[in-house]
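Hey,

The postdoc asked me to send both predictions to you directly instead of through the lab channel. I've kept everything plain text so nothing gets mangled by the mail client. Protein one:
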Amino acid sequence: MKNLIVANWKMNPASQKEAKEIFDATRDGVKGLGQEIVICPPSVYLYASVFGKGIVSMGAQNVFWEDKGAFTGEVSAVMLKDLGVEYVIIGHSERRKYFGETDEIINKKIKKSLEAGLKIIFCVGETEEERSENKQEEVVERQIKKGLEGVNDILGMAIAYEPVWAIGTGKACGVEDAKKMQEFIRKLAPEARVLYGGSVKSENSGDYIKQAGANGLLVGGASLNAEEFVKIVKSAE
């Protein structure tokens, strides 16, 4: 199975022009490489799916748990699917922290997205305080069990282990710690692909796959630099 390398642009860049430049440079740079590439831009740039068909897949950063209705500002799974989106990130720590998303909300989003035929990138991970108390396995187990409650088929789902203390901080998780957590996640969800995310850059990306055994990567800030992101993809070859 190919490694899954996901670019999460978060709320960047500021213009369509910049978005297209990053997208085009990334698409051209990964041509011929043997990894599965997903780009998750802000929803206003998802139109770019027409440029990358066959080379990269498009993913959304968020989704709502109903198909339609009076939910101002939200986007449904069926809308994303109709747009040509293949993947959706659910449960990212920033959604949990800033928007109050609970395990129950995440569970509803996962179910609705699967119903619509979207592929899931399900994020889990502990805070710095939880790790200092040696609760990382307890936290991740709760997130996975509650997030996947009532979900019968997770074959092909990607679970991204993203220690919250490593996201955007430059304090990347050690390879051995990442390996241990990925092995723990596989015991809970053996049919899922397990990714690593959190301060991923080209200097450490290959180690997370080749030494820690990740099935891919969820890349944040580094994915906005097309040259750096292509290096990350190449490190998995």
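Protein two:
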Amino acid sequence: MEFDNAVFARRTVREFKPDPVPPGSIRRVLTAGLQAPCNAHLKSWHFLLLRDKEKRARAVIQGLRARDIKDPAEIERFLAPFADDELKSVYRRSLPLQLTMMLESPELLVVCYQVKPLADCRRLFDLNPLASVWMCIENIMLALAAEGLYGCTYTPYEAGGLKEFLGIPEGYEIAAVIPFGFPKQEPKEQIPEKLDERLSIDRWGNSEPF
């Protein structure tokens, strides 16, 4: 797939067909992730594929403590602290599927990175490992689209239980949990973002023609 096609084909998908993902596709996707830029060329990343369904279920239910929230009143209580309407809209779609998507996706990927404890980070520079692992994740999401696959990035609220369950060593954190596979339904068309509303020239707010 041409690069532009992969970029514009990428979608967030939380419901999947049961069809298995070809091993070759998985290897190409993860290899693409390893090509991402990184801080100091360290690429201190590690991938875990949770393939045993029984172990996966225990990992996400007992370790990650993920759950579906389907009761509308409970969803609204969860959303009460948030002010952004778009964020609320996203959560209304995602909260009922947060556990289901991990249990039912053909593949579940855990992306880890090496970093000093977040509590010790005092400067933006200290977050370079986090920034670079997300460039790795972006490559993964685009590579999925190039393979006709889709997924969803889930950032754990609290990853300690999942790290312990999976035996992730000290010094590593979980950046994202990514369920992926072939979409259950054809993803909806995205409304293109308007670049000119987000672009300034030389000074914030200067929107001269470009």
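Summary for protein two, as requested: Residues 3-197 form a domain with the NADH Oxidase fold (CATH 3.40.109.10).

Thanks,
C.
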